[in-house]
Recover the amino acids of this structure.
């Protein structure tokens, strides 16, 4: 992903959604149809191309969606890498996560929300310091049953590419984790080593589930006795 300079002295458009979390390096497709967010995308395309994906806090968004319900403090600043303007004025966009950021202050603005941010990660992490955790993740991804999953096949392709380990961790997490709460936990975690631990925990759980399913599918108990 090409390096992009973000001017944190200026506000960035906020796009809050329930249970929709974007992680850095990953991409998500979005269909933009609400008038205020159509304006947001148009403004972003005419300037820096940035949109900060945020998550609602609590359940007030259910009754206050048209207003400014509370949002969680950590967001992912993304860049519009692709866009298609539809005939009805809506957009289909592809948003790629750039970095984790903390909302410092929201600024009054219409018709959509904007905020000033502070980056949560500054210094890059040397791949050598992540070598052990990367090796463990690759080992789990190459497990006989885990590697058969279609989602894991996508990650396997990244393993052969020369991408930074930090990016691999985020891409793998985004691909494997569909639960919004768990994704947000990965988003707000600033320590890459801890994020790697969370990814390893998820892969170990996936491995246990697949192994257990394989045993029952073969008609044998944990001790190897026939179940029929």
């Amino acid at each position: 992903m090409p390096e992009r300079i973000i001017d944190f002295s200026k506000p960035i458009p906020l796009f809050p959604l329930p249970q929709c979390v974007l992680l850095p390096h990953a991409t998500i497709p979005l269909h933009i149809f609400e008038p205020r967010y159509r304006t947001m995308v148009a403004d972003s395309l005419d300037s820096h191309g940035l949109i900060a994906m945020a998550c609602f806090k609590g359940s007030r968004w259910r009754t206050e969606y048209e207003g400014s319900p509370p949002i969680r403090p950590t967001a992912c600043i993304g860049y519009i890498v692709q866009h298609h303007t539809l005939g009805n004025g809506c957009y289909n966009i592809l948003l790629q996560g750039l970095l984790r950021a903390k909302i410092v202050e929201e600024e009054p603005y219409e018709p959509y929300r904007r905020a000033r941010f502070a980056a949560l990660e500054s210094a890059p992490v040397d791949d050598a310091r992540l070598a052990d955790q990367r090796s463990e993740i690759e080992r789990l991804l190459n497990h006989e049953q885990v590697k058969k999953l279609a989602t894991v096949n996508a990650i396997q392709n990244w393993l052969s590419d020369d991408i930074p380990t930090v990016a691999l961790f985020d891409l793998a997490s985004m691909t494997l984790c569909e639960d919004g709460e768990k994704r947000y936990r990965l988003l707000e975690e600033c320590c890459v080593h801890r994020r790697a631990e969370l990814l390893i925990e998820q892969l170990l759980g996936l491995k246990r589930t697949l192994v257990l399913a394989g045993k029952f599918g073969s008609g044998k108990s944990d001790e190897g006795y026939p179940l029929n």
About this structure: The first strand starts at residue 12 and ends at 17. Helices lie at 35-45, 61-64, 131-141, 150-159, 165-176, 180-188, 192-217.
